[in-house]
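Q&A log
Question type: sequence-to-structure
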Amino acid sequence: MNRFENKVIVITGGGAGLGRACALGWAAEGGSIVVTDIVEARAKSVADHIAAEGGRAIGVRADVAVEAEVEAAVAAAVAEWGRLDIMFANAGRAPAGFGATPLEDVTEAEWDDVNAVVYKGVFFSGKHACRQMKKQGDGGNIVVTTSAGGINAYPGFGPYNAGKAGAIGLIKSMAYDWGRYGIRVNGLAPTHGMSLNFALPPDAEVLGISYEEAALAEAGGVWDPVTMFPGPLKVGRPPGLRDNAAVATFLASDDSQYLSGVTIPASDGGNFARTSIPIPEAWSLQDQVGGGADS
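Response status: OK
Response body:
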């Protein structure tokens, strides 16, 4: 398939994890990719890999918390290929201590450090993509990586949860405001299958596996979804980056051309299938009232 033929794409946070997986996949389907990352060497490594496979890509350092650097990444796409078709606002950042700080002890600086990336960075990415797409006059597509933490809270991730919830709100606002220009905006909210690199320092080795795949390797390579996966959906393999990349690909491609303003819970494994109210799986009204019809 060549779903991204003649498409120029900017991917933020493209040096590792989901961003890297999508950069490689979308380039293989004909896309011209600007890979951005806060670590320039990671961005250039992905771009070099794409070029070695016969694709088109450039690597650019960009911190999405800095508006001028996001603007420069869009300008790099235009300078190289003359336009921008898809912005994948994917860059993320975990809270300090990876959730170890109680919410009431989070400092303003720690709050801002996370939300400058996961919330404000989404605004900057959308803003400058929109401006370029409006100039072109033929529409465009913005995809945002949010999180299940923006729908249901991850314990200990208060600043992150808040920023991701804000990003989901931004998706709706951007979709409404920019739909008149033919620009659509959607998001995916991964629950499982997230990159192990997310928990590691930015300059760590790029591993290309999910938390669950790492746990499987540590357990000796035998996957038991009953004991190793907490969700109600039981599949014969662990969730991985490819599962979230498939949803991102659907949103970035013309397969979702008439979709805008929505966020899809990706790789949720049935996480959102029921409430947390402790109702037994097999119950009857008689059980709840304490007896049969004659009691």
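Response note: The first helix runs from residue 17 to 28.
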